[in-house]
């Protein structure tokens, strides 16, 4: 079992996904790449929570750095200490990524905040959110997307970006969960392998190195 190689793969894989989540969340805050909607407070609620920035972004990047540093550990005692730290950092990353994934799915299901024609006139609200009067979700009925007048194309904008951010954070969640299982298994099995390792050239003392 090559624990260090698994740690390196997980750590390296988390970095681009964290960057994708951060960029997606920034774009969600800027519909049509215009700042005025953000300044006026006319941005989808789930986007303003910025979980793609602080959760699947910054927190996962910090966790990825810890994972990469732990993968360079040498020696059994140091290895077990780093594995304990690895479990804690992976759990933190798991919680952060799963939070972003949940928020992304919620934003995708609820629909965007937009200006639309209501019975009382044009108003800002979330007209595409699920309701008993609309049995078919807007995701499966593109004819409903035209209800949003401003920002232009906000429905497509939110669907694409929330889908990208949700998919990336879901992959982060899977990687962090597998990393927790990997480190726990390495923590349990590792010391035993170290004690039972046969040294080459009959050298009486050796140190197990995870590569």
Report how far apart the termini are: 10 Å
Binned strand content: under 5%
- Mean residue pLDDT: 84
The SS-based structural class is mainly alpha
The main sheet comes to:
2 strands, antiparallel
Radius of gyration, whole Å: 23 Å
Kindly state the percentage of residues in helix.
55-70%
Identify the quaternary structure here.
single chain
Q: Describe the global form.
A: elongated
* Major β-sheet strand ordering: 1-2
Count up the helices.
6
E-strand count: 2
Question: In brief, what are we looking at here?
Answer:
The protein has 211 residues and is mainly alpha-helical.
SSE map:
Elements: H1 3-28, H2 36-39, H3 45-48, H4 51-70, H5 76-110, E1 114-118, E2 121-125, H6 154-196
Antiparallel strand pairs: 1-2
Structure description:
With 211 residues, the protein is mainly alpha-helical. It is built from 6 helices and 2 strands. The protein has a two-stranded antiparallel ribbon. The longest helix has 43 residues, at 154-196. The protein is elongated, with a radius of gyration of 23 Å. Residues 192-211 have low confidence and may be disordered.
Label this structure with key terms.
single chain; 211 residues; mainly alpha; two-stranded antiparallel ribbon; 6 helices; 5% strand
């Amino acid at each position: 079992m090559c624990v260090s190689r698994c740690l390196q793969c997980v750590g390296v894989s988390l970095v681009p996904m964290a960057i994708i989540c951060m960029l997606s969340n920034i774009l969600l805050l800027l519909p049509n790449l215009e700042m005025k909607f953000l300044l006026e407070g006319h941005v989808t609620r789930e986007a303003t929570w910025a979980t793609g920035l602080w959760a699947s972004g910054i927190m996962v990047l910090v966790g990825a750095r810890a994972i990469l540093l732990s993968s360079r550990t040498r020696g059994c005692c140091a290895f077990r200490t780093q594995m304990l730290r690895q479990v804690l950092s992976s759990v933190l990353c798991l919680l952060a990524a799963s939070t972003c994934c949940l928020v992304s799915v919620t934003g995708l299901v609820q629909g965007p905040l937009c200006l639309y024609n209501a019975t009382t006139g044009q108003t800002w609200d979330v007209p595409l959110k699920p309701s008993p009067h609309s049995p078919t979700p807007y995701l499966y009925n593109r004819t409903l997307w035209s209800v949003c007048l401003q920002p232009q194309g906000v429905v497509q904008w939110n669907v694409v970006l929330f889908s990208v951010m949700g998919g990336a954070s879901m992959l982060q969640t899977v990687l962090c969960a597998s990393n927790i299982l990997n480190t726990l298994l390495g923590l349990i099995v590792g010391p035993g392998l170290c004690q039972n390792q046969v040294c080459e050239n009959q050298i009486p003392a050796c140190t197990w190195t995870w590569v």
